[in-house]
Amino acid sequence: MSQTATARAHTNIALVKYWGKRDEALFLPQNGSLSLTLDALFTTTTVHFDPALNADVLVRDDALREGDEAAKVTRFLDLVRQQAGFTHRARVMTRNDVPTAAGLASSASGFAALAAAASRAAGLDLSLTALSALARQGSGSASRSIYGGFAEWRKGEAPDGADSYAVPLVPPEHWDVRMVVTVLSAAPKDRSSREGMRHTVGTSAFYRGWLDTVEADLAAARAAIAQRDLEALGTVAESSALKMHGSMLGATPPFTYWTPATLAVMHAVWDLRRAGVPAWLTIDAGPNVKVLTSPAAQAAVEAALAAVPGVESLIAAGPGPGIRWLEAPVLGAD
Ligand code: PMV
Q: Which atom of ligand 1 is nearest to the CA of 139?
């Protein structure tokens, strides 16, 4: 057993969203989803299994982490230990190359990097498919960060989740699109995606309507990607995101991740489109708006978004790579 391994995974943004689980324990989704992996935002993680440890240790961004965050990592490492057939505890050192003020969820890149590093350190030689299914059990969206470019998470049908994993659609070189992320507020989101999904699935009058449109959205997105049709992809991405957020407004009690600045950015994107600039928005379980555009329009989009009150900063990204293993470990504080 090699005991130590380091891996890097990039975050992804869903263009056809995942919202709602059919099995909470196994992280099985109600619907399929499709995403773009981003070059600018990634997580690097080293896992070292050490027989001398009597508890897992988590160091993230040079600080020891305890509580919920560490408990999630231990729960995930237990899956790896179970597969590998040993009980050694691990030291996990992880670094997020996501601007810290971004308030962006790093769970996708985080659990993808952890799955790759922990499985290799445990001596498991998993296929990318098996790695995707493993990452899924840390955070659903992490299943897609195993692959670069565009990827699709197939929801699967099997009760044990064996067929619920992501598949690569096209590599990053296929199509140079841009995603401009607006960073609106560093305030932590007040409702996790897990909680938000559960509440929506359980109570929303609109949830069924959301589910009914997903298969058609997936087909439209796949076709748009194959044809490199930005307008078609942007249209379906914006529609998917707004239907997902609409399902939250239909919950009892209703809730939203939007802030006034979110809405201001949305209007700025619609103004850009009216002026003939190709720009379409998507929003996840937080206030930040992500804008899909072309390399040629990126500067115009950035200028317009930077001028919106409440926008603190922008991060521009292109298609990024899939999971990879590195030689040098992440060094963390003791
Ligand atoms: O798997 P999680 O907990 O990161 O949830 C992801 C939920 C959304 O970001 C809103 C949609 C998606 O498909 O990534």
A: 1
